[in-house]
Amino acid sequence: MRKNIVLCGVGGQGIVLTSKLIAAASMAKEIPVMSAETIGMAQKGGSVFSFLRIGEDLFCPMFPKGSADLIIGFEPAEAVRMLPYLKPEGSVIVNTHPIQPVTATLGGGAYDADAMLDYLRQHVSHVTMLDGDSACREIGSPKVLNMVMLGAVLHSGILPLSLEEVQQAMERTVKPQFHAWNRTALQYAAAHPEAICQS
User: Fold this and answer.
1) What is the DSSP letter of 196?
2) N or C: which end of the chain has fewer CB within 10 A?
3) What is the pLDDT of residues 25-50, one digit of tens each?
4) E-state strands within 40-189
5) CB–CB of 121/84 below 8 Å?
């Protein structure tokens, strides 16, 4: 078993922590893990992405284009940008709520999130869409988007990890005062299947 995963979005969305939790839960099951992060203008809404590999016979944290089993897109445009890494039968799980990328802001260009989502529907065989912003408002904290997204990934069954295993990793990593919110966020997709759109 081997999974190649790309996590992508913009600074402040909790992408690096999400990668670390998947890695920690995998290592707790004695599943080998390798990862590499690229953090751009994170404090200014720049691109952030992480390459994560779990499974046997890993020799490098990076992998070539066309070989990712899963893209976890915290932002629609960033998911489209990383799409060349996805294998033909791969899956995308994406947050539908857009954040204006710093490149579009600086260039004065228009940013059409609906067009990005339509592009994903047209070019990816397995797409799961979730409005993470609405989920965060319902949960009561804007800071749990990464846990909402991670819960949707676990709900999909793509990774060899259970919600309980990732929750334990979260509780070992995150300060206790934030456990309740993060547990609720991890369980959001399973508790609200109507909020998930698959195509």
Assistant:
1) E
2) N
3) 999 999 999 999 776 554 556 788 99
4) 47-55, 68-73, 86-95, 126-130
5) no
| Size of the chain in residues | 199
DSSP state at residue 61? S
**Hey, what domains does the chain have and what are their CATH numbers?**
2-198 (3.40.920.10)
pLDDT tens digit sequence for 124-162:
999 999 999 999 999 999 899 999 999 999 999 999 999
CA distance 159 to 71: 12
Distances, alpha carbon 167 to alpha carbons 142, 173, 184, in Å:
19, 10, 10
| Cβ(159)–Cβ(165) below 8 Å | no
Who contacts 140 (Cβ-Cβ below 8 Å, separation ≥6)?
181
Pairing mode, strands 2-10 and 33-39: unpaired
- Mention every residue, 6+ apart, whose C-beta is less than 8 A from residue 136: 142, 143, 144, 145, 148, 185
